Recover the amino acids of this structure.
């Protein structure tokens, strides 16, 4: 009987570890898809709409030396500071999700493209970092970008 309890306990632990791994992979795929959808929206509908849509109500962005807090302030910043000829593309190269599946972070490469006053294309490349939080409705929204 004692051996049966030990065996049952081991099976329970192994099963829960496997489920945890499956959830982890599932959540990582969700985040990769959210990043792709976010990037696609930025290309099709513009940075203003994409950043407003994907920001959490309490989201925060840092632009230059400014920290902009809140979804409405983020939208206002993009409306005032982004020009129509500016584009931003990005792709995560790393994703991690909390064990509980409610927080995640990504980082990867971005390319910011603009036109100077003579119409010459200028590219600024760098690395982005985003923190995502699952909202009460199940959707992922960024809380830091």
């Amino acid at each position: 009987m004692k051996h049966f309890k030990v065996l049952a306990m081991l099976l329970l632990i192994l099963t829960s570890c496997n489920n945890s791994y499956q959830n982890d992979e599932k959540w990582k795929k969700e985040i990769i898809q959210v990043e792709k959808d976010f990037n696609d929206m930025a290309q099709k509908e513009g940075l203003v709409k994409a950043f407003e849509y994907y920001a959490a109500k309490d989201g925060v962005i840092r632009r230059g030396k400014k920290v902009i807090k809140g979804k409405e302030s983020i939208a206002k910043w993009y409306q005032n500071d982004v020009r129509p000829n500016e584009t931003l593309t990005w792709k995560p190269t790393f994703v991690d999700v909390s064990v509980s599946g409610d927080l995640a972070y990504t980082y990867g490469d971005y390319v910011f493209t603009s036109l100077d006053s003579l119409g010459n294309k200028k590219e600024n490349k760098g690395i982005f970092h985003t923190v995502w939080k699952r909202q009460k409705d199940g959707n992922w929204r960024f809380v830091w970008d």
Q: What stands out?
A: The chain has three helices and six strands. The chain has one domain: 2-144. The chain has a mean pLDDT of 88. The helical segments are 2-45, 47-54, 71-81.
